[in-house]
Amino acid sequence: MSVRAQSHLPLRHRHVRIGLTMITGALALVAVVCSALAMRYQERIVEASRYNGTFDFSQGAVELLRLQLALERRPQPNQISEINLRYGIFNNRLKVLKSNPILKEAGYLPMVENLESQIREIGETLAGSRDIAVLAQQGQRLTPIVPSLMRLVSVSHARTGDVILQNQQELKLISAILYSIILALVAFGAILITLVFRQNGKLDEAVRTDALTGLSNRLDFKSVITSPAIRGQAHSVIVIDVDHFKALNDTLGHDAGDLLLSDLSRRLQRAAPDGRLVARMGGDEFAILYSGPDADRRSTAACERILSIMRIPFLIDGREIHSSVTMGLSHSGGEGETSDELYKNADIALYISKTEGRGRFRAFRPDMKHALMRRQKLQADLGEAIARDEFFLLFQPIVDLATGRTRGFEALLRWQHPELGLIPPLEFISIAEESGQIGAIGRWVVEAACRQAARWPESIFVAVNVSAKQLTDPRLAEDISSCIRSHGITAQRLEIEITETALIENDETAVRTLHTLRENGCRISLDDFGTGYASLSYLCRFPFDKLKIDRSFVRNAMQNTESITVIHMVCALAEKLGLNIVAEGIEMEDQRRLLQAASCQYGQGYLFARPLSANDSEQRLGSEHVFALPLSA
């Protein structure tokens, strides 16, 4: 399934969840209504059972018979009180009977009203006359009413039964509906729970999966490496970093970078089929986990396979792209080391591997931690090195091979650390670039070189190395021009040396900066010419003033005919392009003669002088009586 299709999957699930939730809510509301109706019907049944109209009618009939008997018995005058008692009881019972709704429903209300009228007359008679015959006559008048009242007992009994039966039937219907709703709620609830668990599973998988490559991500890697499943087992971690990935992104675009990372992820999976986990840790960093028997041997073999498979170029948008990776490897015997330490050790090995040269792997050794601590200390102390006046420059002469006279100097930066002693540039320059401190250090070098050049004759130039990171600084050209003006030297006396690597890593930005510097009057020299793979293309894109032949060709020239051929070709190319040539690393007279025979104009190396202090450079120029030679170099 494509990434685009996957992105719509949660939306559909969300709509399903919303629909199921609305249905479940509606069913729950209906269930509440049905429950209320069920309670109402139950209350009616209880009420019908508790308030029994049949009992009222039967008791009324009994009391009416007792009143009738009391009237027809022809009591003695002194027994009138019993009639009054029966009259009062039935009169009260009659009031209760009149409130029973069955009377109206059954059509017996007129009969009760007639009975009420007769009872009222009996009451008037009792109040106004003690005539026994009259009272007996009143009792006889009640005789036809008694059967009607008894029929009301039957009607009430039947009516009460009907009410209870109807409520029971309706209660059964409501209960059936309620049970159905409960079953539906259970079913929908089960579906919702299933969807929630499934969605949570997919969410958990998405959280632990890298969207671009489909590999596990950092979270999943850390979870697996710390899981009880591999605790106590021997395991190894490989940390992989793509070399110069930022340069590839900048030159080819992020889409091409994403394609390369996706292809690389597949290559890593093929190269490590026996690995427990392959993960993308973020950016251009990957990691592979090995666990179980022979984890160290199998992970080492995987590193070798990865280096081998990386020799195959990547095909990106129809273009072949060569790329390499640098790796750090760390092994654990399963005891003593935590998983975090194991990963950190692999990261340290990666870091050391980068400092030694890219496109390789290194296995972690305990002494690497000391090297890293030294590097971290140097990085921390670099920030104060300028303020503490720990930097200084040495100046290596650049001489005319034909005359042996000095034409200029290359400024070489040195750092005298108060605790660690003299730190070579190869060690601290890379730290300065990584930490972002190279800008301040580079400005100091230009300022110190210009200050010293102001003390030399106007015919002597100074060459300053500019790193790849400095070329990305938009203020570089203006800072250099300002420094030249402040020390009162001509721009031609400052020569900017750059390497092919600096151009490769920054490309368009570097070329724009170099054009600005050259327009301002500075000379531009391409250092270490011939060691990269883009030299000729850059000679076409930018008008350099000078090429410097790398010392490796000079060193091998006496034993290697290929090196001699390369030197002659470079000199011939420079002559055609109108460029000056400087050869580095000349240590023997035979090398000087060979280079001069190849038409190389200038050279530097221990044959002429080691790097000199500022005072020694002035003494050298004084001994050569250099005062006003034309600045043609």
Structural summary, described in words:
The protein is α/β, with parallel strands linked by helices and 633 residues long. The chain has four domains: 3-50 and 163-207; 53-143; 218-364, Reverse transcriptase/Diguanylate cyclase domain (Alpha-Beta Plaits, 2-Layer Sandwich), CATH 3.30.70; 385-623, Alpha-Beta Barrel (TIM Barrel). It is 60% helix and 14% strand. It has helices spanning 3-50, 53-72, 80-98, 102-106, 109-128, 132-141, 145-207, 218-225, 245-252, 254-271, 295-309, 339-356, 366-385, 425-435, 438-453, 476-487, 500-506, 508-519, 535-541, 551-556, 561-577, 589-597, 614-623, and strands at 235-242, 277-282, 285-291, 314-316, 319-321, 325-332, 361-363, 391-400, 406-417, 421-423, 461-465, 494-499, 523-529, 546-549, 580-583, 602-603. An eight-stranded mixed beta barrel has the order 8-9-11-12-13-14-15-16, surrounded by six helices. A five-stranded mixed β-sheet has the order 2-3-1-6-7, with helices on both faces. A two-stranded antiparallel ribbon has the order 4-5. Strand 6, helix 12 (339-356) and strand 7 form a beta-alpha-beta unit. Helix 2 (53-72) runs antiparallel to helix 6 (132-141), helix 15 packs parallel to helix 16 and helix 16 runs parallel beside helix 18.
